[in-house]
């Protein structure tokens, strides 16, 4: 006689599994983020650590809802299809159902990302749904401990591989390009008609360059930009490292905060923060012509 499945244990297993998957996904996202161009906004990491307990409680609640709304129906439907077409439950019906459910979810939530985005998200979502759904079917009473243990191993292994990959250069970490004063000479555009033109003698011309409505780019305003036009001077501070490079622009009719250096070696960029630096909203200029 088969043991009756314990709904409470199945629910806890599903919440635990979804939580482990979420932590692994977060680690992967963080490692991937280090390889992508990003502004050097300060303070966000400490704030994120402060929010971890709140995020953990919220994540547990979300995992509980997903377990009831998605995982349980997937496990149940897999059992129904197995009995209907094979005369008995078969585990492989679960990933089949999970694939169908995941496809509907990914397409519905794709937001026009296109076929490539769906092609990547679909198998990942299918795997994320299949694992807790398979565990939901388990009738073992002492399965929580092994799942917790192997989940912890998976989390640690993911973190170690990610950290080692960044440390060894296997996953190349993004760093802003090192620019010189000569590299900055030329016209830089925001793509909407605003330009800064630097000359080798230290002069600069601003045409419809955006600034915060209080004249600052450091979050003092409400995030709305006003166009500024005028002439002035500029200097380049290489700083102690590429993250600390600054371009100081002084124009009589404009009040700019310093410009940060971003982009890549082949396509450098200058940017300022719009509003709170932690928001990640940037006003960005890319070079459209050189001074040569």
Describe this structure in words.
The chain is an alpha+beta fold and 292 residues long. 48% of the residues lie in helices and 20% in strands. The chain has helices at 7-35, 44-86, 93-109, 115-136, 144-168, 181-184, and strands at 186-189, 195-198, 203-212, 225-237, 246-251, 259-263, 268-273, 282-290. The chain has an 8-stranded antiparallel β-barrel. A hairpin with a 4-residue loop joins strand 6 and strand 7. The longest helix has 43 residues, at 44-86. It starts with 6 loop residues before the first helix and ends with a strand. The relative contact order is 0.12. The model is unreliable at 214-223 (pLDDT under 50).
How much is the radius of gyration in Å?
26 Å
Low-pLDDT parts are 214-223
Largest sheet: 8 strands, antiparallel, barrel
Helix content: 40-55%
Number of beta-strand segments: 8
Q: How far is it from the N-terminal to the C-terminal residue, by CA?
A: 85 Å
Categorize the overall geometry: elongated
Q: What average pLDDT do the residues reach?
A: 86
Beta-strand content: 15-25%
Strand neighbour order, sheet with most strands:
1-2-3-4-5-6-7-8
Task: Tell me the number of helical segments per DSSP (H or I, 4 or more residues long).
Answer: 6
- Structure class: alpha+beta
Order of helices and strands: HHHHHHEEEEEEEE
Describe the secondary structure blueprint for this structure.
Elements: H1 7-35, H2 44-86, H3 93-109, H4 115-136, H5 144-168, H6 181-184, E1 186-189, E2 195-198, E3 203-212, E4 225-237, E5 246-251, E6 259-263, E7 268-273, E8 282-290
Helix pairs in contact: 1-2, 1-4, 1-5, 2-3, 2-4, 3-4
